[in-house]
Amino acid sequence: MAKTNVNNAKENKVRSTSSVGSFVKSPDLVRLRAGVDRPMLIIIIVLLCFGSVMVFSASYAYAYDKTGDSYFYIRKQIVFLLIGSAAMIAIINLSIDFIRRMTVPFYIFSAALLAVVPVVGLAEGQAVRWLNIGPISLQPSEIMKPALVMILALYMQNHQSEITDYRHFWSSSKYGIFYPAIFVIIACGLVMAENHFSGTIIMFMIAMVVIFCGGARLFWFGLGGGIFMTAVFAVIMFTDYARQRIDIWLNPQNYDALDETWQTTQGLYAIGSGGFFGVGLGNSKQKHMFVSQPQNDFIFSIVCEELGFIGALCVIGLFIAFVLRGLHIAKRAPDTYSSLVAVGIVSHVAIQAILNMAVVTNSIPNTGISLPFFSYGGSSLSVLMAEMGVLLAISRYSYQQK
Question: Which tops the pLDDT comparison, 243 or 115?
């Protein structure tokens, strides 16, 4: 009888920590530890390979003009890819308990890096986003994205009972919105101090997904989101270069097509000239010093030009497959922390991909947003692959029906 009571207590404990919004575990479950989720691993490998091919195709003309070496960017991208692969493999073999224990130090470390960027960081246009640490250049805002996801997931798990106790309105609101908002405000405030508005918005959107899936009240969720977006918009309106970008988007006819609207216009020319099947891999004309730095934020326009509508659909389809498989992993994760981390990582990739494509198609104002797995970059690619390591590590621990 005592043994039965112990088993029931363990099962109740599992159930109490395994409910994340719609990610509710069945009561008849058994926890497994096995290999990584193979479909997700295959999707990640295909995205990385596809992205690397497009980085080379998009960059070789620009690289030759700027450095005299057509392989300059793809060579560095491969190095970043190898570093990221090593990080991903190492993290895959970590236990969820270890990852959970490292969450608080990781968040503090990320916040500390962000805090020193305005003081000693390197400027990129109007924004100061980069740190040089010896021979390594990194963008701390990229590190904060997974750190914020992890700290919110840890908080939501530790206070799951208070958050989901909807009988007490103020208590559930306090634990579900106001306290986790402290972590979000710190992260977004530090990124905002870099004049990195797109990064601030992306980070906030990722945080809202995690908080919502953690069981926060919809009323406060909507109110908090509205207040934040209003505050960001107000700051943008009082920042000259950010306000100008919005005006360029709304009134392009008032600006010089050879200057302020050049990149957007050339990107649209690339997309339009691709047609249904594209001009062929490697045959883009717009990458020959028309689209500015085509290997970075506007690489999707080169995909559309060279591979056409079909190629664009393939890219979008891969991201949809990534999201669906990621949510499958989140649903089968062993606890609230793991589920929310998986949801946060998936939402990071999805949100950034959607916003990048929106910028390239001129659906939103032009701002620096990279396309995950495709855009050239060191710290962004390495951190992204480390996130994939966390996601695949979570997939090793799952629940199956008995």
Answer: 115
